[in-house]
């Protein structure tokens, strides 16, 4: 037996031992879990038998409530411990299959012997609970594995730095408890293993990269210094992967006070949400909150306005021919900028003096306080008070008026009529109150006048409750009409910063606001305005905000998010080359080099997703493309095919898909520029194949052939990608350059670019040795 085989046998022996112990633990916990589960089922089944339900008398109602509460608490406590144990069990099940993936032998300074540290997705102690058989990959000592090659190394323990030497660094592939392979590695964690992981088929769900995290990615995952960490990473450099590993790391590092519900991830679309949803559970952690910025805005303003989605805004942009003179396009740019924010801030200061618009306060159709009265009261309040403080005072004043109204209305006939509509619990309460208030006498009789008074009280309070609530929420302030004034003539200032078509933009804006429609470019500014006007209620429960595809956020949106989460740390991840929204091309993009260097910035330049030829091809038309490094994974050259017309394009498309299917690619994406184009292509393809058309509302996708617009394919990847029509006409400007780059970089193994007519100048720029070029004319269409 050679040295390697001997080592392998020894390691397998250790694996066996560890797996045996894991199985024992699983058995022990399973029995415990089963007992608790039976108990939970039992409690649920007998829930109503174990509580005494009696609603006849008030005392009984109170007793019933207490009994219900006690029973519910008991149940939820059991359910909680059942949940925790089941989670432990899940983790153990995963460890049983593959207990660890790495090892380092580390000799601490001053020690004579190195200790072996085995690293896996969770920690495991030996039987005596004394030594670690496996270290969690997030433990301080595990960072050695990701950060150093064999040789001198150190790591940061809780309060000190530990120095020493790594004498061995090894990687394992263990499946179903069997050691399938093992390598001793240098600095980069297993080119070997990485090659094999990256060479696999694309999945419809993102995978965890825990076993092969690269040193530069580890800097992101374990970063604890920065309040705002900005990651600029080229396409496929592992930004999203690192972000999710970072969530898992933070949950472990701050497990005492950070829970998954204190973390939120803003992602580009719903499809992406589900794409990444399995990574954390795979690592034994609960998912963080996930949302899209659009969904967030919609929950804030959706009941007042119909809100355009960013995708509809994008479709509009992509269909406009002349971007220079289109007012809407100009508005998209301007309203995303900090200049516009300043303009709003200035407008807000003028409102201190004049301009606030209010709504009438009515009750049962009758005017109680007119908007004019509110206006006059508001502007009589001291000028040095802020608007939100003054509004608080108005609330106070209005509530007093409502108190007076209550006194008057209570005596009216309609109130008595409505006492009939009160429910049983109200009557019981009134009776109880009457009994409590009546001095003890032999002959207790219910005083009917008093009873009527109490019942009237109940009715009027019930009816006024919604009005009081609305007042407390400032519904008497007419935010929309106040905001509209910003776009009206009386407020027009002359400024060089205003866009040329400002007048027209103003008209368009007030029209759509009046129709209760918010364009995407108006949504954040409006919400900002509303929040500042009424007083910002910052979210303090979120401790960490992750923003993926951060390049697509405007400077305005970013400032808004900072205001919304003032006490949160933030991790922003993006790629300036994939900026596909018009506002994202501006200089104030948070990821642009020109942006102020006030945040810590980590740059990732190595791309892992695509083969080397694909990375070299796609980076050729990007500014600074020479800085994009490919991970060394071989593959075939991308193919560019120019055809004369759509009919040849359709034939070639079908031909290529057949080709890719024969090569056993499991996810094949036909990426189009717009939704409309996607619909046409999908219709054509569905004559021959089973295809899925992905639109903005798609939540998941299956393996097979999908047709998708480029902007929705953000963040995800496919075995093979076909760009439907990368013609000169379709891809010309900056945004289209980025869109084409984003689309092409979705390919892991193969890329085929069709062009109907002359190919885009961006592809013309690519050195000819970086792709295979075909031109197919009508008369040649039957050849390849
Ligand atoms: N260290 C790693 N080990 C294994 N696979 C990795 C590693 N880093 C990245 N990958 C793989 O590379 C691919 C791209 O990763 P990811 O989607 O996180 O990149 P990204 O920078 O967010 O990409 P994009 O900006 O293009 O959407 C994924 O398949 C991911 O699993």
From TrEMBL:
ATP binds at residues 233-240. GO terms for biological process: recombinational repair. Pfam families: UvrD-helicase (PF00580), UvrD_C_2 (PF13538). Gene3D superfamilies: 1.10.10.160, P-loop containing nucleotide triphosphate hydrolases. Keywords: ATP-binding, Helicase, Hydrolase, Nucleotide-binding. GO terms for cellular component: cytosol. GO terms for molecular function: 3'-5' DNA helicase activity; ATP binding; DNA binding; hydrolase activity. Signal peptide: none annotated. It comes from the Bacteria. Residues 212-611 form the UvrD-like helicase ATP-binding domain. The keyword Transmembrane does not apply. PANTHER family: DNA HELICASE IV, UVRD / RECB / PCRA DNA HELICASE FAMILY MEMBER. This is Helicase IV. The gene is helD.
